[in-house]
Amino acid sequence: MSRRAARIKVITSATLWGSSFPIIRIGLMYISPILFLFLRFSVAAVMLLLILYIINVKLSLHKVNGLIIISGIFNATAYAFQFVGQKFTYATNAALMVNTSPIFTAIFAHFLLKEKLTKPRVGAIALTFFGVSIVTLCSGQVLEFRMVGDVLCLLAGISWGLYMTLAKKIRGDSRFDELELLFIWFLYTAALGGIVLPFEGLRITINVWSLFAILYTAVMCSIIPYMLWYKALKSLEATSSANYFMLEIIISAIIEAMFLGLSFSVSLIVGAALVVAGVYLVDYFYRTEKALV
Q1: Does a structural domain hold residue 279?
Q2: For residue 216, what are the domain limits?
Q3: Looking at residue 207, what DSSP letter applies?
Q4: 194, CA 20 to 30 Å: which among 90, 139, 201, 203?
Q5: What is the rounded CA–CA span in Å between residue 185 and residue 73?
Q6: Is residue 125 part of a domain?
Q7: Any domain includes 234
Q8: pLDDT tens across 16-54, in order?
């Protein structure tokens, strides 16, 4: 796969994941957080299982190694932090905290994958996050720091930083079909939700919005973006691919501005421009520095 095709896949994934923040916020109005997490990934896992059956791919669960288990646990834990955290903060706050993951990915990838943290790359990542911060902190609705929700979403960002690094390390393992591996990760996430469910005060109101939130996040924010992102990992570095996810904050802010009453201001435009510039520069420095080696 060419690097350009990989970038398009990651950008598409970031766009779909960015739409998940306001949708999750709506879903949490009718469904308790862990139950929502459980339903989303149970539906996604069942759909993937059907797809695997249709394309005649046999599950190789006996080949699952420790690295896959650990990465699955971190992915599941990150979702648990995000879903509970979003109950106590705004969608854009959550998007900002969750999208600190590229910073942690860069750190973890430096030590685990030997991806060099050069000054230009660090500067480009910092520029991207600065743009994200402008979008969030200059929105009048989110000036108030909501400690519980924001900290939980920050923990989600840290967990995803490690998960994305491990996923890149696993990417070279040819024993698993891509959809098979995604099924395993989704199954772990659903299982974690199922284990924690008895400790949560379950709440669900079945209506059009709650059903839409479950189905939309299962398909458009789980199966499709994960598949595209994991394919792109074959051609992109862990840090470079993760940095594209900061585009999620722009998508989230735009949707909130259009449908949920968030102010659409000059700060959003300036912040978005800085994010796009930072994302481009991170990828540019990786390409140019790799070409010089």
Answers
A1: no
A2: 3-113+144-247
A3: S
A4: 90
A5: 8
A6: no
A7: yes
A8: 988 987 898 889 899 998 899 999 999 999 999 999 999
